[in-house]
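Hi C.,

You asked whether I'd gotten around to modeling the 159-residue construct. I have! Everything is below, sequence then structure, no commentary in between.
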Amino acid sequence: MPPEFVKGRNVQGERVEMLVEKMVWRPSVYALILNDKGELLVQDNIHTHKFDLPGGGVEVWERVEEALIREVWEETGLEAKIIELVHVQDNFFLTPSGKHWHTLHFFYRAEVTGGVIRNSILADEWTTNPHWMAVNDGAAESFTAGDMVWKAVQLALHG
């Protein structure tokens, strides 16, 4: 018998109880892209005022790798090529609009193959201002998803 509630987090990282009967699966993909200077491509999250990686939800009709390429282009204007899967982790997440998600995060190391950096083309995007950040200036607390993203960053850098 499933529990009535699970413990999750909201976008601010606060612990919240989430109703299992409202839970939906949401696979998502995120790109770990480093430039020639060793800087990481990040975006500003308008809800948390922290950094996010380019990425987002996988549509039911697309492969995970296709979703990553699409998300990077939609959010940054950059064309990317996947190098390797670095990390997978699940999470229980309560969205700002009240959706109860059990997320599966796929983190891929990728590289830029073209395009020009720009803001997202999506009107309801939570992230803005794609830019390069010196990895040495970051820490788990710098990212919306904190420890999960920082672990993926470290794995991309050091294996």
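If it helps when you're writing up: The helical segments are 64-76, 146-158.

Thanks,
B.
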